[in-house]
Amino acid sequence: MFLEQDIQQGYVPFPESRARQYREQGCWQSQTHFQMLADLALRYTDRIAAIQDDKQLSYQQLYRLAIHYGSYLKQKGVRETDFVLLQSPNVIEVFIVIFGLYAIGARPVFCLHGHGSYEIENIARQSRAVGMIKLCASDNEPTASEICDAFSVPNFNLWFRDTLISQHSLEASLPQLKQVVSESDLQAQSTAEDIAFLQLSGGTTGLPKLIPRTHADYIYSIKKSVEVTGLNPETKQLVVLPVMHNFCMSSPGFLGVFYAGGTVILSRVLHPRICFELIEKYKIQQVSLVPAIATLWLNSESLTDYDLSSLAVVQVGGAKLLPSLAEQIIKIFNVKLQQVYGMAEGLVNFTHLDDTDQITIQTQGKKLSHLDEIRITDHDGQALPNNAIGHIQTRGPYTINGYYNLAEINRRSFTEDGFYKTGDIGYLDDELNIVVTGREKEQINRSGEKITPSEVEEFILQHPRIKDVCVIGVRDESLGERIKAIIIPKTEHHEINLKNIRHFLMSKNISHFKIPDEIEIVADFKYTHVGKVNRKELG
Ligand code: AMP
Ligand code: DBH
């Protein structure tokens, strides 16, 4: 059932007893991603699947072009089950490349657009990919060849480095094929329970880890995400986060929109004015954001210049959304907020569209599948009751059982009974909504007192002159760690200093040990490639 080469590379499949349950309960079906597209092309034919600038693709066109591109790759020597690194900005051609790879049973490794040759080399080595496809938004970007020239990895074939410049028209950027190809010419044998692709763990520390997802598990999570987000053929969703990131690929992401027969509008940039223009022009109803982009948009001067009234739902995930920001999103955009807590490793939680504002603002919602198992444990791995804060662990029908080719890390990241240790801290409330309070490594230990940064941040944000804040622990000789607040003021003339911040917080009656020992004023934070605040880099 599993590919021998994957098992040899340290792929950890689902244990058979659980796999049987997921099949019997109808979670896992027999469809691969390419078969899913074939079905969509039949059902939604001329409806528009995706738009970017002046380019658009109907479902039928996407399907035909994917077959052409797959055939081109095959001629170039890419074989079934090969891993191929893929890097792309938010351009429409990326959909053709992804489904072109699927059409021949090859497997993309989704690198983020921001990854440089240092990360790419590591990913190439770990995955044993045979080559790289890179789409560029301009002639100034390094090509696949230039990136790959910077390193040498055994088996990383020199025969396949392809760069598509997507500024040219869609036709011109695609290989010109003389013969007509059909689905049957491609003959991919892959089955739904094989690895479909490798995602990367975003991680704010260290190099990305490879996450093997199967067609069956991923399509199941997409289908459930579509249900909970209410997507339908009329849906127009703006995709502004990097397309390769798991959040905007599947929760519900562009794949969710395709699954529902709706239309994805891609934005190459996250600039508020450009995104607002797209929302107005296409009457976009949904968008998925990380908190930092939500903040950027809310503080934009162009906010009132555009008609954003079509916007009905804003999904926010990827990092802790502070309740005060959640409230502003609801009020200022006049939308239903949907919090999404997920990870490329699998588990996804959503607040529901009919939840009360209280639940939507204060929690990260409910698990996607009734077969997701979530447990909160103490430091020794003992399960804790509801409302007790602890380590979040999970297993289920779409959560991996191990990283690809990383046996050592797997021993640390998974429990003996197959739960993934998320590294997140939080609790389940009485209605089983999950609340994420932070990351294990973020927690500050100041003379033995444990401080959750998000709690202190929430207080500091109440200060009228502060736009954003990030609280971290820094090493301290006598305290172990001291608390540092890194602050972005609303204006240049802010008069913010440690003394008045301390004074402000004392007036809120918070415990004195939670009050920052140090502040730093900055113009902006450092972010990861997907726009999460990079706490490690801030220290
Ligand atoms: P990644 O490695 O990029 O897949 O990131 C997954 C991690 O992002 C999770 O384990 C959490 O630490 C964090 N995360 C994702 N969504 C949320 C959320 N809504 N609230 C808090 N943290 C989140
Ligand atoms: O941060 C994430 O990785 C993430 C957030 C929300 C994710 O992978 C997801 C939803 O699926």
UniProtKB/TrEMBL annotation:
The keyword rRNA-binding does not apply. Residues 41-404 form the AMP-dependent synthetase/ligase domain. InterPro entries: AMP-bd_C, AMP-bd_C_sf, AMP-binding_CS, AMP-dep_synth/lig_dom, ANL_N_sf. Residues 455-532 form the AMP-binding enzyme C-terminal domain. It comes from the Bacteria. PROSITE patterns: AMP_BINDING. GO terms for molecular function: medium-chain fatty acid-CoA ligase activity. One of its GO terms (biological process) is fatty acid metabolic process. Keywords: Ligase. Belongs to the ATP-dependent AMP-binding enzyme family. This is (2,3-dihydroxybenzoyl)adenylate synthase. It comes from Acinetobacter rudis CIP 110305.
